[in-house]
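Good morning N.,

You mentioned wanting to compare the apo and holo forms, so I went ahead and generated the holo version with fe (iii) ion. This is what I fed in:
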Amino acid sequence: MEILRLPALSDNYIFLLCDRDSQTAAVVDPATAKPVLAALDRLNVKLVAIFNTHHHSDHVGGNRELLKHFPEAVVYGGSEDKGRIPGQQQYLREGDRVQFAGRIADVFFVPGHTRAHIAYYFPPNQPGQPGELFCGDTLFAGGCGRLFEGTPAQMVTSLTKLRTLPDNTQVWCAHEYTLKNLKFALTVDPENPDLQQRYQQVQKSRQNDEATVPSLLATEKQTNPFLRWESPTIQAAMGSKDPVQTFGRLRGKKDMF
Ligand code: ZN
Ligand code: FE
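and this is what came out, ligand included:
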């Protein structure tokens, strides 16, 4: 399974999973159809599945058009998103599994950004290989999604599920927000050397117009304040010793940043 990252809209990433052997592809969160159709054409592969993480238009905007070209493609989304994802046929819950290219992905229910958000995790194919996490707008490189339909407690539970995955997991989040996220992170965790170093790297990458997605979960655990609600530094910066309150205040502060 090859993974292609297709930029879309102003800062979205669409991910195309490609199986050369069977000449099939699956797409994660097609914001728009055009770059997906162009890639499918170029690779000469057929779209068999659309994996949506949540109902926002910058994640499902391409569904209808893709279905016009590939009417047999199966559209997956969360069970709680029923009625909100165009063309949805499969209603996934925590613990469900989906299949593509001989790989099986676990589905996680990760409400917070929306009340129905799900994530897809493909465990490593072979020992030593990374797993692949498609987490939409729940976990970002250096940040996390806004709480549009969920509470801090829900998001902490959701992020805990993702944080529990192996360090060697590639985090394929749906937006290029990393630089701004790390700028904010430095305001609450300024002495963190891993964060300082990451900020320098990301700044360089963005100056060269390079993508910062995927990132490694190990890096997120070290540098992403939204996975570090237990850190005494972050708790002190937020004036709380309670994980959920720390997280909630952090999210509130980021909303104003
Ligand atoms: Zn969203
Ligand atoms: Fe989004």
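The chain has a mean pLDDT of 98.

Happy to go through it together on a call whenever suits you.

Best,
F.
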